[in-house]
Amino acid sequence: MTRREWMTGSAALALEPQAPPAAYKTYFGDLHNHNNIGYAQGSLRRAYEIARNHLDFFAFTPHAHWHDIGKYEHAIENKWINGFAVTRARWPEVVRMAREFDAPGKFVCILGYECHSTSLGDYHILFPDMDAELALFDDLKELQRFAKKRGCLMIPHHPAVREGRRGANFAHRDPEVSPLLEMYSEWGNAEHDRAPLGYVRHTEPGRWTKNTLQYFLAQGHRVGVIASTDDHLGCPGAYREGLAAVKVKELSRAAIFDALRSRRTYAVTGDRIALDFTLNGRMMGQELPYTRERDLKVEVTGWDQVDRVELLKNNRVIHRDFPMDRAAPARSWDKPVLVRFEYGWGPWPALGIVRVCDWDIRIALEGGVIEDLQTCFQSGPLDESRRDRLIERTERGLRLRSFTALRERIDDISTKAVVLKVRGGPDTRLTISLDAPARVSMTQTFRELAESSEMLYTGDFPKESALVHRLVFHENYHTSYAVKDTDKGEGVNWYYARVVQANGQLAWSSPIWVG
Fold first, then answer.
1. What pTM, to 2 d.p., does this model score?
2. pLDDT digit of tens for each residue in the chain (515 aa)?
3. 9, 101, 420, 510: which sits with the fewest CB atoms below 10 Å from its CB?
4. How many alpha carbons fall within 13 Å on the CB side of residue 510?
């Protein structure tokens, strides 16, 4: 019995890669992000420049209102109250900046803002046009009526905080304006109370079971999923903090809103995992009338080895596929391989050495072609004058300027990275040259990198260093398969897909409901 058969107890049919519905493409963005308009950090222009550099769409959502704010230790409520005043004063600037950067087809800007509520949970409000008004209400029903009138969406976030402590209160959710849940952000993962990447970064004590995605689904809520950063260092799309994926026919605000309303969405933590999931040909987020026979199809293309792809029915795994375990005796050099270059290790704070390290990186290929790439830029350190930027890109190489430091980072990780999808062979040569922080270089063949990772040092300990990870082959980062399920129709069923990469990055589809 194979590992797959043992874990699932049912057979699965391996298929050739299945194309998603032809009319749709997947785009990635951040729909919940903060800077110094409000009470976070970083300038507004810097945030838009960062977003445009690596995202398809972006909503800056300044902190705007908290109708039931209390009085707290050290009068910290003034931090919020003063931030709300900044948002009100600078709202015209927020609108102007969004209009300036908006470029449909290339980079879509969405206007919005955030409202807190101790009793009802936090929402960010997104506008379908560029004429957004800062409308603030003390009553949730009034805000929902306003949202319906204006065609806005209201997305609850950090839901797993306990109800009554700014956690989601789904008894008051209106599905018409809140079809989605932000299930992951820099707060952590709200899939369920024992899921990886828990709530550890804030004062609130972890995850309340009754405010997690799986609990909401079990209670009958038909809610789709996205992720976004909720970053407070003015860094949209910060790696490891969450991104929203939408399936649209074109990169426009109207198409994005159509995807959000239709729950044609999924959530990723950092790596831009490509995920397609259908049931009887219907896309994620859809609802089907009862049918006994269910044909589930999933296709995943990761940016690292994919540990497993799971299909869940009613919150229970019914099938697991393990691309990472696939042997590759004759490694598929006819398919692109993944090359991850990670940089930023340096002196830890205990040594008393505190600095920001600037990187000027050149990557060149001989005997290979770059088909695609992904940058992995995290939020810290905050620096108005510096930017993580892809300066040049060709089929044979790229130039990257970046900066790292052992401070203001998520999960105590100081590194950033770029991942290349390269069509090459065992004799392809990869050369990485640094102009900063030191003039050093290294060259490795793909044959060598297929066997072992390799380090690049910028000097003696404790100088910064970098790593070229071991190659990832197509059969280990891609999978496509189908599973058949039958049901007697005794109740509503919901299905969704979950992806777990070897490097800990995750993706979740919006559910599909039957019955």
1. 0.94
2. 333 333 333 333 333 343 456 689 999 999 999 999 999 999 999 999 999 999 999 999 999 999 999 999 999 999 999 999 999 999 999 999 999 999 999 999 999 999 999 999 999 999 999 999 999 999 999 999 999 999 999 999 999 999 999 999 999 999 999 999 999 999 999 999 999 999 998 888 899 999 999 999 999 999 999 999 999 999 999 999 999 999 999 999 999 999 999 999 999 999 999 999 999 999 999 999 999 999 999 999 999 999 999 999 999 999 999 999 987 655 689 999 999 999 999 888 788 888 999 999 999 999 999 999 999 999 989 999 999 999 999 999 999 999 999 877 777 788 999 999 999 999 999 999 999 999 999 999 999 999 999 999 999 999 999 999 999 999 999 999 999 999 998 899 999 999 999 999 999 999 999 99
3. 9
4. 30
Distance CA 381, CA 18 (A): 41
State the Cα–Cα distance between residues 229 and 233, nearest whole angstrom. Answer: 10
Could you give the CA distance from residue 43 to residue 385 in angstroms, rounded to a whole number?
Answer: 10
* Residues 429/402, Cβ–Cβ less than 8 Å: no
* CB 51, CB 58: distance < 8 Å: yes
Nearest-angstrom CA–CA distance, 204 and 209: 14
Give 13-57 as a DSSP string: EE-SPPPPPTT-EEEEEES-B--TTTTS-S-HHHHHHHHHHH-SE
Q: Is 82 helix (H, G, I), strand (E, B) or coil?
A: helix
> Three-state DSSP class for 341?
strand
Rounded to 5 degrees, φ, ψ at 372 are -160, 165
